[in-house]
## 1
Amino acid sequence: MAIAICGKFKKASFFRALPASIAISPVGILFGLLAYSIDWDILQVGILSLIAFTGSGQFAIIPLLQEQNSDLLTIGMVLISINMRYIPMSYFDKDNLPNKSIPRLLMSHFLGDEAYAVENKEDNVMDRIIIRFTIVFFWVFSTMLGVYLGKYSLVFLPNSINLYFPASILLACLSYDQIKSGLKNSYDNITGKFYALIICFIVSLSSILIIGDKYFWIPSIISSAIVLAIISRKYNDSR
Amino acid sequence: MIQDNLFYESVIILFITSFFVRILPSFIKINLVEKYSDVFSNYIPLAVFLNFLVYIIYTGFLNDENTIVPFLIMFILFFFKKWIPNLVIIFLVSFVYYLLEYGTVT
């Protein structure tokens, strides 16, 4: 009985991770094609995608390293800035991770935007392992497939094609699901939900415009969380 | 040889990046006052997703004006999300985008 329930949960987690995994695959293939253009082989791309699993960071590093004037410290700082959104995500996700160091290290390393958006509060450690590793598997496989397609000239893409778009829509869909459920859990009435959405939208957009779209993440996330808490206190108490 | 160096440097720098932004935060504990700890742990995830959505739309508009119509379609489809799976929304919205972007060949 317990095994059957566990199996059902695992299967459910796998199928929940599948749309995200499929949607990021074109982006992975694009990375593989890019890596092939600088003569990296399938094995190198697989290793990089696994050990250095960062998605956007992987795309950013190739032009950064190829620039003559870039030193490694500057590149490191740029990459950390691009990926700063993970700091609050990872910090507040740590209670959902295994206690042992190595599994915890692996799970936190494999925390991607898509996995974060797919996972729910109710998910146990096994659900999270399945979701993260399914997405990582598809990512690594698709980057390696990209090299293969490039090597055997099996794909011809216009230079300007934007393969990120489906992945952006996926992230928007998953974010919408999480926002809907988060608002439902945090606010008792429609007025609170409305103000939370509008004010956070203004905070976030202002932060992007003032600080820039690379560095706005941490100030904007913290300001938005404070605003959400204040609105929740005000409107939930006044019911 | 040069590309090999590029590969090793990429792996090291990206892993160090992951270490600072994902691994380290999951191992450290900051003693927040309980009141504020609750605020952050309850509302940070919601704030992250709201910021994601604004960021996706903002960068989409900024980089490519052809994203306006697909994004509008996406928001309309969100009203029917109960009946439409994410994959269908991704397919429909992406199809409209690629049609607008690459549909006419001159």
## 2
Amino acid sequence: MIKELNSPVRIVLDNCGKIDPESIEEYIAQDGYKAVGKVLREMKPEEVVSEIKASGLQGRGGAAFPTGLKWDFTAKAQDTPKYVICNADEGEPGTFKDRAILEGDPHKIIEGMIIAGYAVGAHYGYIYIRGEYLLSINRFQKAIEQAIGHRFLGEDILESGFNFQIDIHQGAGSYVCGEETALMDSLEGKRGTPRFKPPFPPSSGLWKKPTVINNVETLANIVPIILKGADWFRSFGAKECPGTKVYAISGHAKEVGLIEAPMGITLREIITEHAQGMRQGKFKMAQVGGTAGAILGEDMLDLPLDYASLKEKGLVLGSGAILVMDETTCAVDMLKCFLNFFKRESCGECVPCRVGTEKLLQLATAISQGEGKEDDIDLMLHTAKVMQKTSLCALGQSPILPISTILKCFRGEVTEHIRGRCPTGVCKI
Amino acid sequence: MKLRNRKKDVIALLSKAQTENKHNYITEEKLKLIAREAGLSYSEVYGVATFYSLFSLKPRGEYVIRVCDSGPCHLMGSKSVFEVLEEELNIDLGETTSDGEFTLEETSCLGICDEAPAMMINDKVYGNLTPQKIKETLRKLKEKK
């Protein structure tokens, strides 16, 4: 069981920890599969799409693309068959929300996928779960079998004439497969490398067929929206980013775990009110959005953590991972750790990312060993900017964010390393 | 209504081949067999097998220990996890013990960042690691033999 830190609202995590995730009866007792019944019996597919559009739900995997719009594009695509994919390749370091949902409430995702299938006209669904999440895979498999047993999956669901089935695809260890087109290649049994875009998945996705691909947390919002309506959903969160977000807190906070809160909660509120403050020592910085996210210093503690507010500042909310770091943390040591991650996970397909991630790690390593030059800082920024403009996917486009924000907050500390001293004593110079 | 498509199953077949092997790797023979079954060339299947970090084409220990060094685990002390394991097993990262029992690897984020630092041994995840807990875990695995 993943620890949850007194969430102010529970839309996504509602059933987690409350019901036995391996019992479909307990799920049904919480109004489970009622949304599927409502959709199949009372709504036309286009009405379902309209409802999701009206809710303002945005993709919770990190890109924040309007879910209703994605469904609309796929519904209008002419080619068949169409596919629904649930992206459960949660690999962004510091993120463990999808695992909590899969382990705690798998039927809600099955239900969300059936509804997505009905809305866009797909009869096949795949869930791509990373190979490291064995409990999630087992629980989901069990849930699929139970849903088939209760005739929520298969042919003629609830005597509506609608057919839908779901298969699990188990990943085999690759961060880049979280990128939607890489995931599709991987699902097709190939190396998981990103594709050129356009075309986008709604017109050409899995096996080049129209595909709607949504993150686990996004799909977990579908059932509540269908049951309670778009207006209800819009009563939570920020105007431009309705609903809640599941934030994953890790690092030096006193309490770490998940918290579901209305979009727009601040870092200060999360740390002081929900995580009970710092474990010991003073707050130094937090990385928001995973390793591909920005470093926020003390001056950013009151920034609302929603997609729009962060975008305005040139930052990202990403997956909602929050890594809290106290003053004993060395900014250069962490930067090196982040860049090591990018280097290791670069798939090698495009040159800017393959060469750039290696080069960035070399520069950061040299700086951490007191062997950097003053020019190296600009070289890092320049390299990361070129990568941002020329890389094929988010992996190569992302290093600029942690690098530029660390330099904005802690340039002095980086320079001290170049002059031969690590102020926190973490780096061996 | 069956979703199966042989090419799609390559990753599942590789995974099965590896799990069935006592030394946690995919033999060349198996690669050839899977290529034939899926109607692919050997090089295509080799390309897939070498892309994913969970697969190995070299023999490994009966227990594959995979330590996370992503941001949260790094912050919470994964360095000492590596040190303790390297000392206890007397191997470096990427190596296998001479008795063929343990292999030490680095892994990407395991998604249990609320229990950092963490590691995975075969199918099982271990969090909130301390030197004591690591030594205890190794001892139990050795006793099992």
